[in-house]
Design a protein that fits this description.
This protein is of the alpha/beta class and 358 residues long. The protein is built from 11 helices and 19 strands. Helix 5 links the parallel strand 3 and strand 4. It is elongated. The two termini are 25 Å apart. The relative contact order is 0.15. Bound molecules: pyridoxal-5'-phosphate (PLP). Pyridoxal-5'-phosphate binds next to helix 9.
């Protein structure tokens, strides 16, 4: 066994990401895959190289460094930088050939004065996070007439809630776009939740994120993604704990009868959340074993009393093993976190094995 696989690892199925992207494109037409936060923790460069076969319209990132990483990997398509940067950083955004989202007369003027090239107008239709308020775009008319944007976009705040808010935000977006001196050629609004609902997709481009990485954004009959990621670790210790003893910090797991405890050499510093202790299961040999006690920084214990296991056996903390599976949504619910946090929390201490993608 290669040494890097002796502790634990992440498996990332690039072909599944590509198939999920095809599902998004079948709903939405042109897509701009969001690969911010290192493709939600799964490895942006590998993910983008796999997605290139779909010839997407471009890619979305959140930081200049993320964009630069794609450029250094040789990616030539549009890379949109969605999170605002300081004025002084705009020259570096230009130097990295990124396309910024701008929302103020001052930043638009600065961007054009440094010959920045294409940019997109960010319009706030209710998220109250970034962008020019939808009913104030008229105030930018002079600067927009002088420096028209390539694109304009907004972002939905509750695309998975089915509360009518997508339609309400779309109406605001529509009004804002009509108030521009000229309608930009590239309009975009939909995230994964809107795309599977076929809302907000009557635009030039849509911006899927979490669906690509295997997380559903609504129940069937809405489109479901294929799972993408697995987290596995090898058992490094086995012990028998006597009745009356406890397992892990705070002695929160009390052993009522003799119990077999297996130790995995991964913990919350690898992205397996502390809150999963005493709640989640792992799979060993295709069967469920409860996590015993709180998850520690570097180790996690399983109650394997019902199983026949050996040191070196592989435990699956996330993903499929035989007929059983643990998905991101299950861990998110047990950890009282969002699936986005679970994914982006799978940090780089575990080696990533990417599969497929050619
Ligand atoms: C993250 C993000 C998306 C993708 O959202 P998902 O819910 O992951 O599909 C789309 N647009 C913007 C501006 C984003 O920041």
């Amino acid at each position: 066994m290669p040494m890097e696989l002796s502790r634990g690892w992440l498996e990332i199925d690039l072909d599944a990401i590509v198939r999920n992207a095809r599902t998004m494109a079948a709903h939405a037409g042109n897509i701009l895959p969001m690969v911010k936060a290192d493709a939600y923790g799964l490895g942006a460069v590998r993910v983008v190289r796999a997605l290139e076969q779909l010839a997407p319209w471009g890619y979305g990132v959140a930081t200049m460094e993320e964009g630069r990483e794609l450029r250094e990997a040789g990616i030539r398509r549009r890379v949109l930088l969605f999170t605002s940067v300081q004025m002084d950083d705009l020259a570096a955004v230009r130097d990295a050939s990124l396309t910024p989202a701008l929302a103020s007369a001052a930043s638009i003027a600065r961007w054009t004065s440094i010959a920045g090239g294409a940019w997109h107008l960010s319009i706030d239709t209710g998220m109250s996070r970034s962008g020019v308020p939808w009913d104030e775009v008229g105030q930018l008319a002079t600067v927009l007439r002088a420096h028209p944007p390539e694109g304009a976009f907004t972002h939905f705040h509750s695309a998975t809630l089915d509360d009518g808010s997508i339609a309400a935000q779309e109406k605001r977006f529509e009004r804002a776009v009509e108030a521009l001196p000229a309608i930009p050629p590239v309009l975009h609004a939909a995230n994964s939740g809107a795309i599977v609902r076929s809302e907000g997709t009557r635009r030039h481009v849509s911006r899927p994120g979490v669906f690509l990485y295997g997380v559903p954004v609504g129940p069937p009959p809405l489109a479901q993604p294929e799972p993408v990621v697995a987290m596995r670790a090898r058992i490094v210790e086995l012990r028998t704990v006597r009745a009356g003893e406890s397992v892990s910090y705070d002695a929160a797991y009390r052993v009522e009868r003799e119990t077999r405890i297996a130790t995995l050499p991964v913990g919350y510093a690898d992205g397996y959340r502390r809150a999963l202790g005493n709640r989640a299961h792992a799979l060993v040999g295709g069967r469920r074993a409860p996590v015993a006690g709180v998850v520690t920084m570097d180790m996690t214990m399983l109650d394997v009393s019902a199983l026949d296991v050996r040191i070196g056996d592989v435990a699956t903390l996330l993903g499929r093993d035989g007929a059983e599976r643990i998905d991101v949504a299950e861990l998110a619910e047990l950890a009282n976190a969002s699936p986005y946090e679970i994914l982006t929390g799978l940090n780089a201490r575990l080696p990533r094995r990417h599969q497929g993608g050619q």
